Amino acid sequence: MQVNLRVIAGPYKGRIFTFTQHDSFLIGRNPEAHLCLPEDRFFSRNHCLLEINPPHSFLRDLGSTNGTFVNGQRVREVFLNNGDRIQGGETVLCVEVGVGADNQSPRPGSSLEDHPTAPLFVTVECINCGRREQVQASAADEKFTFVCEDCRIELKKNPHTIPGYETVRLIGRGGMGAVMLGREQKKGRPVAIKTLLPEFAVSDKAMKRFMREIDVASALQHRNIVEFIDRGTYNGMIYLVTEFVDGCDAARLAESHGGQLPYPDAISVLAQSLDALSYAHAAGYIHRDFKDQNILVSGQGRDLVAKLTDFGLAKSFTHSGMSGVTMASEMAGTLAYMPPEQLRNFRDVRPQSDIYAVGMTAYSLLSGTIALDLPKKSSINNTIRAIFEQPTIPLKQRAPNVPDPICQIIDRALSKDPTQRWQSAAAMRNALLHAA
Ligand SMILES: Nc1ncnc2c1ncn2[C@@H]1O[C@H](COP(=O)(O)OP(=O)(O)OP(=O)(O)O)[C@@H](O)[C@H]1O
Ligand SMILES: [Mg+2]
Questions:
Q1: pTM of this prediction?
Q2: pLDDT band for position 380 (50/70/90)?
Q3: Atom of ligand 1 nearest to the CA of 289
Q4: Nearest ligand, measured from the Cα of 244
Q5: pLDDT, mean over the chain
Q6: 204 is catalytic
């Protein structure tokens, strides 16, 4: 599938931006914007941000002074459809949704990016209740796994027991699904079973790609990374089976200390997590969803062990189109941990992007607050704008009891400019261990 943004008026008239994968697109006076209009006073610095996951696209105005208009209406946020017109000042972009280049052979004399073929619809059937719906497809014979919205809601509440495992109890719920404590029937060992429910019908091709990416990430073996055991699909649910960590996640650990983790414990958790990141980065993996809830902690004091989970999972989930436009749905809770460059360009994520999220996590574990000045229920649009524009609040102001050198190490991880951050997980880890 493909989405084109065709500029039909304004200084960039004639330009076409083509998206065949999950991506973001920023419009504004910011020199780093994808559609940069530095001279046009109509535009705010960070005017509006599009999230595109073909065939879906979502636009959010970032609190711009003069507004963003879609089909003549001023909008704050909106799903975009084929033929919609986005306007700001003299600039007009037309949205084109269709079958993308990877599904067509070029017509003589025409560029595929230029004219995606009109969207194709096929009928899919819910794997649980048989309900039928129409979805956009790349080819008439494309096969899909589909769970309708009602079944999805029900399965989120009560995930089915996976063959080969007993369900013991629900441990928690996150943005992509639920996690249960289970027992492997063969060996009797306890396991964690994470079930994921795609927001949309998933093509066989996308499912294969997702499983391939999971298999690749499952090769990571480190004492501070949760061990991967099994994966598969059952009744439309995707399940991932991992080692069960008998303890709690770092967020709950901080809560059990009144919201602020004493710094020696926090440094132990962070140093172990950075060790895992250093190993994974060297192997070419970026976590992309590093946060308090994805660090599982067992033991105490000198015996405290921290393990990272959900390596690259958020990326694989969005990449395969299963999440649709994630920012619009449930990523909101941890959106504030996302570094500016990742928001601007989902696919250009470096080890330094994980370092920023480590900084955010450290900040929250030590201070019980986030590093940006945002109200508890800040809207997604305000959070995004704050990530782009607001300086982070020095940790010392929020956690006066934490020694200065530690505060400085964490503040450095939170630089907006990735080149100003710690350049490697190992460097940050060493600095923390020396400062402690
Ligand atoms: N292997 C595991 N062993 C023990 N508890 C786990 C395990 N994996 C996850 N959990 C618990 O289940 C909770 C929910 O996990 P889940 O990954 O679904 O949500 P999340 O981490 O908050 O968000 P995200 O979907 O972005 O990862 C976690 O916060 C953690 O406390
Ligand atoms: Mg998680």
A1: 0.90
A2: confident
A3: 26
A4: 1
A5: 90
A6: no
